Amino acid sequence: MNIKITGTGSVIPSKVEQNKSFSNHLFFDSNGDSIKNSNEVIIEKFKSITGIEQRRYIEDNQTVTDIAIEAANKSIDNAKINRESIDYIIVAHNVGDITFESNQIDTLPCLASKVKAGLEIKNPNCVAYDILFGCPGWVEGVIQATAFIKAGMAKKCLVIGADTLSRVLDHTDRDSMIYADGAGATIIEKSNEQGGILSHKTVTYTSEGEADFIFYGTANDKVGNSKYIKMHGRKVYEFALSKVPLALKSCLESSGRSLSELKKIFLHQANLKMDEAIINRFYGLYNKKMPENILPMNIQEFGNSSVATVPTLFDLVINRNYCGHSLRKNDLILFASVGAGMNINAITYQM
């Protein structure tokens, strides 16, 4: 049985937030003490490490449901399917549906139900549910959709990754410059064509405090007790560098395909230097050098939009040849992500 991605769609929010927008922010460390470096120095160091020059935020009158529905409509049109034939709608997110300046996370009903309503799907047998899995949520949603199809429980699934991290930012935290908004959607279905999903790998690490690396926490006492997305950046970096290459290797080897066949790796867009270091270490496991143009990147332009980064980038590459990257029929690629949990997953996929 071959299971393939037959349609894609993405939404890149129109509001552009440049690095210079943070020039007037007051930045504090985790102890609530003012950071001594000037904002110019902070921002320049941030850019040199992450590669981020700007990020995208949704409009004040939008929520994550709006952009998830838009991305879903695009993927349905791209796949040329009847939306009433969709068996599952799986929406991966991390912060729910938050209206502007409310700081109130809304997850009831689930976002997938709101998306189904927005798509005007009337079929009650189309099951809609959410998945909370950190940044690897979209990849895990695709893995779950694959399992449903293999089990005969579904023929077509809509898997969406959408987040609006701009709604949970502590603007006194330097890490707030990383996060962004976006949505990517895919249609997953049984296919008579060769290729598709060849293998997958998922792991969760918690035994050494990994569950606390990315979390919701209170801001420093200068801005009150509301909860915001927080991250221990150094711990995340070290964890990802040591664990993600091993998961990629395990996934690729489970597919029975060779490293030399690999054309692209669609890795969660978290940090430019971190992603490059991960892939360099992955190739190092085979005593090989990382090839040029193996790793498409859009974090410089769009920031870290969490679960949306991988499906958004994939859609941009296959439909717009983003930054000169393109894919052909039968090309072998990897999807992979790492994030809160700490969770890591990967998929070997043949176009």
Helical/strand content category: alpha/beta
State the name of the first-level CATH class of the largest domain. Answer: Alpha Beta
CA radius of gyration: 19 Å
| CATH architecture level-2 label of the largest domain | 3-Layer(aba) Sandwich
Write down how many β-strands occur, each being a DSSP E stretch of 2 or more residues: 13
Order of helices and strands: EEHEHEHEHEEEEEHEHHHEE
What multimeric state do the chains show?
single chain
How much helicity do the residues have?
A: 25-40%
Count of separate DSSP helical elements: 8
Largest sheet: 5 strands, mixed
CATH superfamily of the largest domain: Thiolase/Chalcone synthase
Estimate the mean pLDDT confidence.
Answer: 93
What does this structure look like?
The protein is α/β, with parallel strands linked by helices. About 30% of the residues lie in helices and about 25% in strands. It has helices spanning about 40-50, 65-80, 110-120, 135-150, 235-255, 270-285, 300, 310-320, and strands at about 1-10, 15-20, 55, 90, 125-130, 155-165, 180-190, 195-205, 215-220, 225-230, 260-265, 330-340, 345-350. The radius of gyration is 19 Å and the shape is globular. The mean pLDDT is about 95.
